[in-house]
Each structure stands twice: as structure tokens, then as C-alpha cells.
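#struct-pred
JK: can someone run the complex with adenosine monophosphate? inputs below
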Amino acid sequence: MNFSVAVYCGSRPGLDPAWAEQARIVGRWIALHGGRLVYGGGHNGLMGIVADAALEAGAQVLGVIPQALVEKEYAHHGCTELRIVQTMHERKRIMAEEADAFLALPGGIGTLEEFFEVWTWRQLGYHNKPVGLLNHKGHYDGLLRFMAYTVAQEFMGPWQMSLIEVGDEPESLLRSLVQSAGLSSAAGLDQI
Ligand code: AMP
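RT: done, C-alpha cells with the ligand placed:
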């Protein structure tokens, strides 16, 4: 395994089939570049789709799931490694430690919470790993407009916005995150 990407995404598939397709592309890309997927360990929604795509393409997949969610989110027992932990905090800590970069796809409040957490941890210097937001089909335009408004209202500075990478296509965004993490040669991106 050359690098690990933590993917945060919905425990539901969402309405537009494009979200599932994006999740599949992400899982395949990680596998084809020798990476490992780190994710919440569930079988539902986009979480299951990204994991299945990564597994089918031969990636290592680390799923980290709290005991209380094993049945609710249908723990994915096909993961190459499934860690069942006691608490949500333990899950998030392990995911953050095991990843070299973070990527959020469309999702609900769980996804948003995880994305904002790793973003805020970065601004505080708890880690220095790249954080990406996949804004395919403008899914997150409304959120990004709100964040721009928050900057305009001086509750945060533009430098905090610069701590996330936003992209509308998964391949180029993943490539950029892996490069930002300093792992492009491990992923074979130097030869391209
Ligand atoms: P959702 O985006 O709400 O579909 O949830 C995606 C994933 O985030 C699921 O694995 C949830 O268990 C997880 N999740 C939900 N709430 C939280 C939370 N407060 N902190 C971290 N993860 C959460």
C-alpha cells in the first residue's frame, strides 16, 4: 500500500445516480494507483459503493465502525480490514491517523461533520494532511457560497478556505490530494 485516502460520504446513495458513479470512480482510482481506502466501514449508500469499487479493483480497504453502528450501517465484512471500535470518537481518530489525505463526497450530516472536523483540525495544526471536497455537478456550491459569506463577515479568513481543495472531477482532485500529501511518486503519478 502506497498511500491511504479517507473518504467521507453518505450512508445513503442520494437521488442522482451521478453520486454513485463518482463514488465508484473514487474507489477505482485509489485501487489503480496502489492506494488504500480508509472509510467508515458501512455497506450502505455511497459508503458501500466506494468500498465495493475499491475492493473489486484490488485495493486494501480499512473500514472503521463503532459497535453500535455495526447492524445499523451493515458493517462491510468484505473489507480487507474491519476494525470494530467502541465509540464514534475512536472511529474518527483512527480514520484521521490512518489516512494521508481526506476526501468528502456528497453525504448527509455525518459526512459534513467529518469533513468539517478534519478541516478544523488542519486549521489548528493537529495535522497537515490535504483535505478535499468533491463538488461534482456543483453539489456543494451552496455550502461554498455560505463559506464565502462567512469569510466576508470576517468570521474566518481566506487562508482557512485555502486549507481545502475543491474539485469537480474525482480523478484530478485525487491526483492533487496525493500530490499535496507528497506521495505522488508512490502513486505512480510522476511518470504521467
Ligand atoms: P451521513 O453522511 O449522515 O449519511 O453519514 C455518513 C457517515 O458518517 C456514517 O458512517 C455515519 O455513521 C457517520 N456519522 C454520523 N454522525 C457522525 C458524527 N457525529 N461524527 C462522525 N461521523 C458521523
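RT: quick notes.
The pocket of adenosine monophosphate is lined by residues 10-12, 40, 42, 47, 69, 73, 88, 92, 107-111, 113-114 (CB under 6 Å).
The beta strands are 3-8, 35-39, 60-66, 81-85, 101-104, 131-134, 164-167.
JK: thanks, will look after standup
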